[in-house]
Amino acid sequence: MAYVLAGGRGSRLKELTDTRAKPAVYFGGKSRIIDFALSNAINSGIRRIGVATQYKAHSLIRHLQRGWNFLRPERNESFDILPASQRISEFQWYEGTADAVYQNIDIIAESAPEYMVILAGDHIYKMDYEIMLRQHCESGADVTVACMEVPRMEAVAFGVMHVDANDRIVDFVEKPADPPSIPGQPDVALASLGIYVFNTKLLIEELRRDASTEGSSRDFGKDIIPYLVRHGHAHAHRFSASCVRSPEEPAAYWRDVGTVDAYWEANIDLTDVIPQLDLYDREWPLWTYSELTPPAKFVHDEDGRRGQAVSSLVAGDTIISGANVHRSLVSTGVRAHSYSSLDEAVVLPYCKIGRHARLRKVVLDRGVIIPEGLIVGEDPVLDGHRFRRTDKGVCLITQPMIDRLEL
């Protein structure tokens, strides 16, 4: 059974998570962030899935109901949405990642899976969990932790696995100032990806033990994994062994799009001729809720008013009407009107771009209506006063920000 932890707010995404949880944030034109973990599970042959939700979950739950309702109990498949519902105590919501599993032990026991794959629902990557499961079985570990090789001093932002020569975890350090290196690789560290495999019986025992431990934060990374490192057998699984790469992908790809800059960069990278993430890989499809939409449309063909998009991704039901789009990602249902321009823009669904607007290096939240003549990306001081402008010069624009403008 795959159990996806999808309750996090993702506060570093600022206003993008004002109305939705981070796993429900749009990505790549027509998908949501959570679709990557769920697609990995389906493509890995895992057909029993649970998703724990909590923070502002309506958008996420609606997406899951519409796009992930194809699993059938009569085929020994299941898809359970598990909102924080005060199942243990009428006053207690999910207190941590481990508690989000503990509060649903009865539902897990009913499915009776032999193994549990615990997943974060807010990262962008392609991975075959079957390979990690096989390693877990062969090693006899109590828990297997997926890890990624990173330059040692970049690991200060991660939980770091200190391993022996056989990749058995001998210590776990959360965001260390001096990360331990991999044996034989002094400049490389193993950073935890928040992906775990457990034997279900042992996991339930550990969750109950942790729930009765006073002072525990009820978290896998802070409590469960460090305890098993000290008192059991914890093993590292290297992401490079199970990451899925098409012939077009030059390297293993994993991204935490947890900041506005990282989110903008990951989306804009998709417009490259050969992007680091291949969304067109039919061998490892990205499943999602696909709206029924007409094709994208490009109209007007005269000097200064030519509907065109270059080095861009444009989703269905979008009309580029005499507008110029360059190196941008345009989601479903967008309308870009005459004489407007988009340059390095991430445009979420159902936005409207008014005539003569010029937008550069922006993220537009869903449904934003850009007034005629608005210019963003040319005056940093004015942009910072009006919108959420990052240190790297990306402007996040929401409808309330537009409503406050004095035009």
Automatic annotation (TrEMBL):
PROSITE patterns registered for this protein in UniProt: ADP_GLC_PYROPHOSPH_1, ADP_GLC_PYROPHOSPH_2
Example of a GO biological process term: glycogen biosynthetic process
Annotated pathway: Glycan biosynthesis; glycogen biosynthesis
Site (Could play a key role in the communication between the regulatory and the substrate sites): 54, 93
Single GO term (MF): ATP binding
Residue ranges occupied by any Glucose-1-phosphate adenylyltransferase/Bifunctional protein GlmU-like C-terminal hexapeptide domain in the UniProt entry: 294-397
EC number: 2.7.7.27
Name used for this protein in its record: Glucose-1-phosphate adenylyltransferase
NCBIfam families per UniProt: glgC, PRK00725.1, PRK00844.1
Nucleotidyl transferase domain span: 3-271
Catalysis: reaction(s): alpha-D-glucose 1-phosphate + ATP + H(+) = ADP-alpha-D-glucose + diphosphate
Signal peptide range in chain numbering: none
